[in-house]
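Late entry, evening session. Most of the bench is empty. Finally got around to the prediction I had been postponing all week. Sequence below, unchanged from the version circulated by S.P.
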Amino acid sequence: MPKFSANLGFLWPDRPLLDRIDAAAAAGFRAIELHWPYATPADAVRQRCAAHGIVLLGINTPVGNAEKGDFGLGAQAGREAEFSDGFRQSSYYARAAGASSVHVMAGLVAPEHKARAKEVLIENLSFAAKAAPDLTLLLEPINQRDKPGYFYSTLSKAADIIGEVGAPNLKIMFDVYHVGVSEGDVLTRLERHLPQIGHVQIAAVPSRTEPDEGEIAYGAVFAALDRFGYAGWTGCEYKPRAGTDEGLAWVKALGVSL
């Protein structure tokens, strides 16, 4: 049976981060994952997790200048120094807070710039993998409906980048929601890419709400994770339809436990 983590970027969004950790523990989660926690001191996050016996899995690298439309810097030519500074911030925060992984965000790239962007991303990831060999670095294909222009939206492109970098601590973030929207055939792709998967996330397709509705039969996904021998955490990165606690009824409905 999968073991679930609470993605506090989306769950209990009406509360400060430390209160969200409390809420996750009260709901029964044994692990959490974060988006951009940098406004909260890392030692405070570590202490709150320790108080509840909760594992902190990972965080995201900074997006850059969100007001100007940035959504990651990994594949941004001419901004390598910004990327390295942001990655150092992420790796320092992750270690201080007790996290074991960092999602390295590639960013938005125009089609005519993709060839150069790939070179930049490979260079940046090579630097990051060497700079933080103790951390798992995750690459997440993000669907083009939600984030038009994101550098990659397919698993094969992320796998290709990982192969070219050749670092053992570089893995795929297999978000079933993004895979379902971008490519479909989720179970086949899950089995194919399993050796490169460092983390799994879930949400309903197409609504991105609790995983008890829509096109993906999550009972089959959970059974496949067990059958394929996936031993990692499964992140609940969905946007609750209403209250987060009320929405957790999906757990019982799908016959699993937190």
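Two things to note before I forget:
The two ends are 10 Å apart (CA to CA).
Residues 13-22+31-196 form a domain with the TIM Barrel fold (CATH 3.20.20.150).
Will write this up properly tomorrow.
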